[in-house]
Design brief:
Length: about 90
Amino acid sequence: MHDMPDIAYRNNIRISVGDFADVLKRSTLAERRPVDNTARLQRMLDHANVIVTAWAGEQLIGISRAITDFAVISLILRWMKNFSTGELVSN
């Protein structure tokens, strides 16, 4: 059994495009996202209404982006590390 590290969730930290690309590459989403197009990744970050990041110490291990009208509709996209396998997973 793997020890689960303490995970801190933060909504007040802006991550870099490089960090965002790294999370995508460690998940299954790199195959379906423009990880080599930094301008497009930056737009993905810039135009999300809400971004919550997950940290194990100083390591970014997950990100959740939401696009919302703040009234009825919200589309939530997330990536998180599975500590039992070490893999990043997505929904």
